Amino acid sequence: MPIINIDCWEGFSPEQKKQWVKELTDVTVNMFNLPPDKVLVILRDTPLANWGQAGTVATDPEFLQKSRITEKQTRFV
């Protein structure tokens, strides 16, 4: 039985979640030739304050810029 776990930022509407679960289920059923009741989808909404990337919390107004650091930064103390 496939279990599909999705961690996402909060803010998706109930209708979007319903469609997301339906489409994930449909793709999995078709790809693996399974009955739909064998596919479990779990969506976990996480507040932006609980997300971070590249050392920056997602609530930071400059998150998009700060979270795109692709090279290791050298720190001198």
Task: Please tell me about this protein's structure.
The protein is α+β, with helices and mostly antiparallel strands. The chain has 2 domains: 3-46, 2-Layer Sandwich (Macrophage Migration Inhibitory Factor); 52-77, no CATH class. The protein is built from 2 helices and 4 strands. It has helices spanning 14-32, 63-66, and strands at residues 3-9, 40-46, 52-53, 56-57. The strands form 2 sheets. A two-stranded parallel sheet has the order 1-2. It has a two-stranded antiparallel ribbon with strand order 3-4. A hairpin with a 2-residue loop joins strand 3 (52-53) and strand 4. It is elongated and about 55 Å long. The protein starts with a strand and ends in an 11-residue tail after the last helix. Keywords: Isomerase. This is 4-oxalocrotonate tautomerase family protein.
Beta fraction: 15-25%
Question: Structurally, how many domains make up the residues?
Answer: 2
Q: Which class best fits the helix and strand makeup?
A: alpha+beta
Order of helices and strands: EHEEEH
Q: Total number of helical segments?
A: 2
Pick out the low-confidence regions: none
**Fraction of residues in helices?**
25-40%
Characterize the largest beta sheet: strand count, sense, and whether it forms a barrel: 2 strands, parallel
- Name the CATH homologous superfamily of the largest domain: Macrophage Migration Inhibitory Factor
Mean pLDDT over all positions? 93
**What overall form do the CA principal axes indicate?**
elongated
Query: How is the CATH topology of the largest domain named?
Result: Macrophage Migration Inhibitory Factor
Characterize the quaternary organization of these chains: single chain
Number of strands: 4
The side-by-side strand order for the widest beta sheet comes to 1-2
What is the terminal-to-terminal distance? Answer: 51 Å
**Rg, nearest Å:** 18 Å
CATH level 1 name of the largest domain: Alpha Beta
The CATH architecture term of the largest domain is 2-Layer Sandwich
Family: Belongs to the 4-oxalocrotonate tautomerase family.
Keywords: Isomerase
InterPro entries: 4-OT-like_dom, Tautomerase/MIF_sf
Protein name: 4-oxalocrotonate tautomerase family protein
